[in-house]
Amino acid sequence: MTGTIRIGTRASTLALAQARTIADKLESAGHTVETVRISTSGDRSGAPVTEIGVGVFTSALREALHAGDIDVAVHSYKDLPTAEEPGLVVAAVPEREDPRDVLVARDGLTLGELPAGAVVGTGSPRRACQLRALGLGLEVTGIRGNIDTRMRKVADGEMDGVVLARAGLARVGRLDEATETIDPIQMLPAPAQGALAVECRSADVELEQLLRDSAEDSSARAAVVAERAVLATLEAGCSAPVGALADVVSDIDDTDGVAHTVMRILLRGVAASGESDGGEVLRASATGDLSEAEFLGKKVAAELLDLGAGASKSLGM
Ligand SMILES: NCc1[nH]cc(CCC(=O)O)c1CC(=O)O
C-alpha cells in the first residue's frame, strides 16, 4: 500500500475511539492514516432508533466508501444491517471487547438492589423485554442519545439506571461508572455487540489483505458470524428484540486417540414471542466447531422460531 489510508468514522467519542484502534494498528505497520469524520442520519435525527430504521449509523459511511471519499470504514458491528452490501467487504473483525451489557445506576445499585418501580432507561427493545422478564417490577422507559447523554439521566436523577453496552463505556474510558456487568443468563447482548467491522471496497484487494493481516481475530469473526446468523434468520432488524452471544472456548478432542486442541462455539440466543409489549422471552442454544458458526446461528434461530419467536413482526417492544 502506498499513500494515505483514509479511515471514515462517525464523529462521536465512541466512534472516534474505535477508529483510533484501527488507525494505531495500521500506523504501527508503517502506514500513513487520515481520519475522516462523517455525520450519519442517526446522529442528526433525535427520533428513536426503532423508528428511523436499520443502517442509520452506517449507510453514510458506506456511501463515502462507494464514492471513494474514504478507503476504510470502521463500524460498531451491531449497527450494520445483516444484508450484504455489494461492492464492499468486511475485511477484518478485530479482537472483541467484552460483549455484555452493563447497568449504570444511582448510588452504586445493581439490578437486584433497585426497588420495584425504579425507572430504568433503554432505547433497545431487546434490553427492555429482557429487563421486564426479570420480574423485578422495574419501570422500563425509552431513552436515546450518545453514551454521555444517557448516563447524564442517572446523574441528573431523572432515571434510577440505564443499560448500556460495556464495550461502549470501556472505549470512552468510563467503565468505572458501571454499577453491574449484567450476567448473560439475565440479559444476552445484541448480536455482534462489542465487535467492530472494518470495511473496505471489495476491489481494493491489497488493502483488504492489509486490514486482515493487521486486525483480524478469527475467534471474534466466528462469534460474529454465528450471532448475526441468528439475527438474519429471524429476519429482524437491529432494533428488534433479538439477543445472541457466542462464547468461543478451547476444548480437547481425543476421539482418534490423540489429544488435539479444538476451538468450539457455545451459542445462546434470545427472542421475544410476538405478543407485543412484554411478550414472552424465548431461549435456545447450540454448540459446535468454529467452522460451523453460521450453521449454529441458523439452528438457534430455527429453534426460536419453533418456540414462537416473531409470530407477529411487531417492533417497538
Ligand atoms: N446502538 C448504539 C451502539 N452501537 C454500538 C454501541 C456500543 C459499542 C458496541 O456494542 O460495540 C452502542 C451503544 C450502546 O448500545 O450502549
From TrEMBL:
Residues 223-305 form the Porphobilinogen deaminase C-terminal domain. One of its GO terms (biological process) is protoporphyrinogen IX biosynthetic process. InterPro entries: HemC (IPR000860), Porphobilin_deaminase_cofac_BS (IPR022419), Porphobilin_deaminase_N (IPR022417), Porphobilinogen_deaminase_C (IPR022418), Porphobilinogen_deaminase_C_sf (IPR036803). The porphobilinogen subunits are added to the dipyrromethane group. Signal peptide: none annotated. It holds the Pfam family Porphobil_deamC. Its cofactor is dipyrromethane. One of its GO terms (cellular component) is cytoplasm. It catalyses: 4 porphobilinogen + H2O = hydroxymethylbilane + 4 NH4(+). Residues 5-208 form the Porphobilinogen deaminase N-terminal domain. It comes from the Bacteria. GO terms for molecular function: hydroxymethylbilane synthase activity. Tetrapolymerization of the monopyrrole PBG into the hydroxymethylbilane pre-uroporphyrinogen in several discrete steps. It comes from Haloechinothrix alba. Binds 1 dipyrromethane group covalently. The lineage of its organism: Bacteria, Bacillati, Actinomycetota, Actinomycetes, Pseudonocardiales. The modification S-(dipyrrolylmethanemethyl)cysteine is found at residue 238. It is an enzyme of class 2 (transferase). Its EC number is 2.5.1.61. Monomer. SUPFAM superfamilies: Periplasmic binding protein-like II, Porphobilinogen deaminase (hydroxymethylbilane synthase), C-terminal domain. Keywords: Porphyrin biosynthesis, Transferase. Belongs to the HMBS family. This is Porphobilinogen deaminase. Transmembrane segments: none annotated.
